[in-house]
Amino acid sequence: MCSDGQVNVRGRWTERLRGNGSAATVAQALGVAVLGLLFIAVGLVDAWGFPGGVVVDPWWFAIPLAVACGAMLIKRRHPLVALGIGLVAFGVDAYAGGSLGVIVALVDLLYAAALFSGPGIPRRLVAAALAVVLAVTAVTFIVGGSLQDTVIMGVQAFALLGTPLWWGLSVRQQRELADLAAARALDIQRLSELRESDAVRGERTRMASELHDALAGNLSAIAIHSAAALAQQQPDHRDAEALRAIRSASIEALEELRSMIELLRGEGDALIAPARLAEVCDLVTAVRSRGVDVHYTVTPDPPPHLPAAVDHAAYRIVQEALANATRHAIGAAVHVSVEVAVESLSIVVSNSRGASMVDPTLGGLGTTTMRERSEALGGSFAAGWDSNDDWVVRATIPIVSATV
């Protein structure tokens, strides 16, 4: 992933450099052309001074100069093509003796090739330049035999070919490092934004949980107790209308609270809602994962839609009964039976003494809580030992009264 990022950064800055500076490129080409013509005008030709070279008119050097300066115009978009044209112009110019203007143009084209060419090309150019320098040095020594001339020619060849390539490669590396640093800074900024977003999401989730814990339970309790009070009142009792209004308002407030919690948690987050009887299967699976042998049956399966108060109370009773069985009867099998009839819902949870059995009536509020949940909805509750020496929890919750 890191290497891909580097290639992308190189591509971005290379394209940016190639696409910009058209006016500067034209100005550079014109500057070299004018400078070269001035050199020709003052007689600075025959730069290489090859013995036995051809004799030409000094203004003949303007032709390879014009070709080399024309190649400079395409050095950003096509650096290797421009370098090839420049090398041909330099070869022709050197054959006639050489002019300083073409040498300046070749230096610029070598620098541009190192700076603007694709990845991997500059190092190949450096290797080729070193090979040419060694070849020129060797040929000079073989032909002339003078060590001094050989060293001078080798230094000149290296200065002409190696220096602009080294300079261009150095500038290229610095720009790549700068772009990589900018890309890294951008990645750090994006990471910081993601962390901030996660923190905000976590805070919203925490607020949603606190809203649910602080208000949803109280609103559910109001709905449950008002429904229980309605079940004990006569239909024409003067308080019945007020109780119905209280229950309706509490249920509407609970629905609005759920909408607020959903908005706080955001799309894609799990919604907080009171547990229902349909989720007992997940509860049983979780208890079984801890090594407890649980037998669960529900009639009908799946259970029908129930009033929210009855649905929630049934789940909590089963949950508390399972918790008591696994806590007080270690290793005992637990049987859970839920039956939904037309007018009522029945829950039976039983377990044997197991390897170790503590009296469930001692030291806990589980039985009291289950009793209160059942009786608050007008139902009944009983817990105790049966004739088979099993601990049995029975709860019956009317369905009709909860819908009044």
From TrEMBL:
Protein name: histidine kinase
Catalytic activity: ATP + protein L-histidine = ADP + protein N-phospho-L-histidine
Organism: Homoserinimonas hongtaonis
Domain Signal transduction histidine kinase subgroup 3 dimerisation and phosphoacceptor residue range list: 203-266
Chain segments annotated as transmembrane: 21-45, 57-74, 81-113, 125-144
InterPro entries documented for this protein: HATPase_C_sf (IPR036890), Sensor_HK_TwoCompSys (IPR050482), Sig_transdc_His_kin_sub3_dim/P (IPR011712)
PANTHER family in the record: NITRATE/NITRITE SENSOR PROTEIN NARX-RELATED, NITRATE_NITRITE SENSOR PROTEIN NARQ
GO cellular component, one term: membrane
GO molecular function: ATP binding; phosphorelay sensor kinase activity; protein dimerization activity
Keywords assigned by UniProt, alphabetized: ATP-binding, Kinase, Membrane, Nucleotide-binding, Phosphoprotein, Transferase, Transmembrane, Transmembrane helix, Two-component regulatory system
Record flagged with keyword Kinase: yes
EC top class, as a word: transferase
Annotated EC: 2.7.13.3
Higher taxonomy: Bacteria, Bacillati, Actinomycetota, Actinomycetes, Micrococcales
Keyword Mitochondrion: no
SUPFAM superfamilies per the UniProt record, alphabetical: ATPase domain of HSP90 chaperone/DNA topoisomerase II/histidine kinase
